[in-house]
Design a protein that fits this description.
five-stranded antiparallel β-sheet, alpha+beta, two-stranded antiparallel ribbon
Length: about 130
């Protein structure tokens, strides 16, 4: 099973000749108003905006999940989980990125993550748990 996942998961993607670059979001919050004044309601709403999920990415293909997988905001196991994509679901695929290591779907220490769209947002799933659709 592991060899099949690795062959289908990485070989099919490598054939596309795509170089994916992970992106980091940096949020800087500024507060306004006079010193000692209570913050304006708009300033309180800013952290909620920073917590929103990623917008959809531009799909170049699709992958099907081999197991239920966590959709994460960043390609690492410490990132926020925005949902769980069930097994057998085909989702739009935007490429592959290298991120933090994980051990799921029969692999240990893999660092390849699929950048996908699901449920109106973009995120990352463990690449070992998907297969590239033809």
């Amino acid at each position: 099973m592991r060899q099949g996942i690795m062959r289908r998961g990485m070989a099919g993607r490598a054939g596309l000749g795509i170089t994916a670059v992970g992106a980091a979001l940096v949020f800087t919050l500024f507060s306004g108003g006079a010193a000692g004044a209570a913050p304006a309601p708009e300033a309180e709403a800013a952290p909620a905006a920073a917590a929103e999920a990623n917008p959809q990415c531009e799909a170049i293909g699709s992958v099907t999940t081999l197991a239920g997988v966590n959709l994460r905001r960043e390609p690492n196991t410490n990132a926020t989980i925005d949902g769980i994509i069930p097994q057998g679901v085909s989702v739009p695929w935007c490429g592959i990125v290298e991120g933090g290591p994980y051990s799921v779907c029969g692999v240990q220490g893999w660092t390849y993550w699929d950048h996908v769209n699901w449920n109106g947002q973009s995120g990352y799933v463990a690449g070992a748990c998907t297969t590239l659709d033809e």
